[in-house]
Specification:
- There is one protein chain.
- By secondary structure, this protein is α/β, with parallel strands linked by helices.
- It contains 23 helices and 16 strands.
- Helix content is 45%, strand content 10%.
- A 14-stranded mixed beta sheet has the order 4-3-5-6-7-8-9-10-11-12-13-14-15-16. Strands 1-2 form a two-stranded antiparallel sheet.
- Helix 15 links the parallel strand 7 and strand 8.
- Helix 14 runs parallel beside helix 15.
- It is elongated and about 90 Å long.
- The N and C termini lie far apart (79 Å).
- The N terminus and C terminus are likely disordered.
């Protein structure tokens, strides 16, 4: 491939732009010049002329922008036919005659596409807009133009947010500043910071540097199933379609029509992850405009983005008109119950959202009730996470009433919601009427043993629940006995997590009675449950009859730890299997079930003599 360096500057796709480029208005940044603007924001020159970053994290952010640029170019090489738009670009002044001549000297369309994209992205915002116009009007690839302009606006958000984050550091009153930093503080004295940005001044250096991040990924989405596909995978499908077109297949033949349908069913989408990006003071307006006018963002994660009810109202207003967003994650934002009202309005009307995460957003029982009231009319949401909110039993009851009549939701997570036995009864009773839910996470709640008798009745007839998480729920022997009764007959449950509960050996003995007859469960988690040699031996004996278990987690228990005879509270503990016998039994079970994996980190498996053996002890 020949080129003329005197006609245009063709940089490497991964090489950074020159530092001497003048800073441009962030509101008019493009895929190329946004990196120049970002450099001007986060870097300055030292006395010897070298470039010094104000902190190490901006380099990481800048590198990620380069990665997305390269990813975008790779993606466009599969989609773009440069010959269709070269004439239009020349008419609009984006390229000249000499550039056109050099482009046609390329030996393949891929090389031509790569050269064209390097030329356009090495220029300014006007040339970028001309490219988007060519995609819309000439090649009729509006979806490509939309994707590029959305990337353009997203880069604007992350660079603007990062500028605020750095200014908040420079304005910190507890840190010594260099003369250059003093100048930056004076220059940005009028910049208004939100409360969370201002709080960063009091954080440690490591916390600030590690707090601001983003990821943008381009992929394809199956328009029928909404499932994501890798770019390379779909590129191969499209390549086969082009090959069939080159062979001049009859357009009405079944083969050519099948290839065309298969190639056209995949549309390019973007998955965006913004972490600790300040979306106040205009950034949320930019993001809302993107969501309102474009449907190419499939997944949006906005964890800890300094959002309150006001920003939530903006976001939800845009989402009411959006038809492409499938996954929304707004965890670690203080939206409160007022924000839940706006979100409920969206859920009543939105027909595309499949996954919603509102973890740690300041919801109370009232806010949770408002949220699920909006969900009562939603027919698309399949996964809901409301963990780490103080919804209490009031909110749990509202959720229970919702799932009792819902036929869509598949995954429900309510971790650390301050739910008691009273609230869990409502939830487990509602499961009797639900035939869709597959995953239930109620970990870190005060559930106790009493309500598990009701769940046991549910599991005797339920055929959809596949995973239950009871980690740290104050479950002991009586609760395990209830679960064992259900496990004898249940044929759907695959994963059960009982970690961090005071189960002890007696509880394991009760649970093992059910596992002996169960033929469907494949994963059992019992980490940090005070299980000793005796409980482990009972569990292994039950697994002699169970051939489906593939993952058994027993980390940080008391296996191998010898309890002196005079410290044993239960007289029955006088007979405790020796660690050698336990190890022998374990080897036997692993021989019977070749697929079983047992995790025993944090236990004492080397064995040692009992310092004070009893008369009937084997040690």
């Amino acid at each position: 491939m020949e080129s003329s360096s005197s006609t245009y500057d063709l940089p490497s796709p991964v090489s950074p732009p020159t530092r001497t480029s003048p800073a441009k208005d962030l509101s008019r940044s493009s895929l190329a010049d946004v990196t120049n603007t970002f450099d001007a924001t986060v870097a300055h020159s030292s006395p010897d002329g070298s470039v010094v970053l104000k902190e190490h994290n901006p380099q990481i952010i800048k590198d990620k922008i380069y990665q997305v640029l390269v990813q975008a170019k790779d993606f466009l090489q599969y989609e773009l036919d440069p010959e269709e738009i070269i004439e239009f670009l020349k008419e609009k002044g984006a390229i000249n005659d000499k550039t056109e001549e050099e482009l046609y000297k390329c030996q393949s369309k891929k090389c031509m596409c790569e050269m064209l994209l390097d030329i356009i992205t090495s220029k300014g915002h006007e040339e970028f807009l001309v490219l988007c116009e060519a995609l819309r009007t000439v090649s009729k690839q509006t979806y490509l133009a939309d994707l590029l302009q959305v990337l353009d606006s997203l880069f604007d958000i992350v660079t603007t947010s990062r500028s605020k984050h750095i200014i908040s550091k420079l304005n910190g009153v507890h840190k010594r500043r260099s003369p250059r930093e003093e100048h930056d503080v004076d220059t940005n004295a009028n910049v208004k910071l939100c409360e969370m940005c201002a709080c960063n001044n009091n954080e440690s250096e490591d916390m600030v540097n590690d707090s601001c991040n983003f990821d943008i990924e381009i992929m394809y989405c199956d328009a029928e199933t909404r499932q994501a596909k890798a770019v390379q995978e779909v590129a191969n499908i499209k390549k086969k379609h082009r090959s069939s077109a080159d062979l001049s297949f009859d357009s009405s033949s079944f083969l050519s029509m099948s290839m065309l349908d298969n190639a056209n069913r995949y549309v390019p989408v973007i998955v965006v992850n913004l972490y600790n990006q300040c979306l106040r003071d205009g950034s949320m307006t930019v993001l809302s405009n993107i969501l309102e006018h474009y449907s190419c963002i499939q997944g949006l994660s906005m964890a800890k983005n300094h959002m309150c009810a006001e920003e939530m109202e903006q976001l939800c207003s845009a989402l009411q008109k959006n038809e492409g967003l499938v996954k929304l994650d707004i965890r670690l934002n203080s939206i409160g119950d007022e924000g839940a009202i706006h979100l409920a309005n969206v859920l009543r009307r939105n027909g595309s959202l499949r996954t919603l995460n509102v973890t740690s957003t300041g919801l109370t029982g009232h806010g949770c009730s408002l949220l699920v009231e909006g969900l009562s009319r939603n027919l698309t949401l399949t996964e809901l996470d409301i963990g780490f909110n103080d919804v209490q039993d009031l909110g749990c009851r509202a959720v229970a009433e919702f799932i009792a009549r819902n036929s869509v939701l598949k995954k429900l997570r309510m971790r650390d919601n301050n739910i008691t036995t009273h609230g869990s009864r409502y939830l487990f009773k509602a499961l009797k009427r639900n035939s869709r839910l597959q995953v239930l996470d109620v970990s870190s709640n005060r559930i106790g043993n009493e309500s598990l008798s009701m769940l046991s009745e549910v599991l005797l007839c339920n055929r959809t629940l596949k995973e239950i998480n009871f980690e740290r729920c104050r479950i002991s022997r009586d609760g395990c006995a209830c679960l064992a009764r259900a496990l004898k007959a249940n044929t759907s449950l695959k994963i059960l997590d009982l970690s961090m509960n005071p189960i002890c050996d007696d509880g394991i003995e009760a649970l093992s009675d059910g596992l002996k007859y169960n033929q469907t469960m494949d994963t059992l988690c019992l980490n940090m449950c005070n299980i000793g040699n005796k409980g482990f031996m009972r569990l292994l004996e039950a697994l002699q009859y169970n051939c489906t278990m593939t993952n058994l987690k027993l980390c940080y228990n008391d296996i191998g730890t010898v309890i002196p005879f005079n410290c044993r509270a239960n007289p029955r503990d006088s007979i405790i299997p020796a660690i050698d016998d336990v190890y022998e039994k374990l080897c036997q079970i692993l021989q019977l079930n070749k697929s079983l994996k047992v995790l025993l980190w944090g236990n004492r498996l080397e064995g040692e003599d009992d310092p004070n053996p009893g008369p009937e002890s084997d040690l």
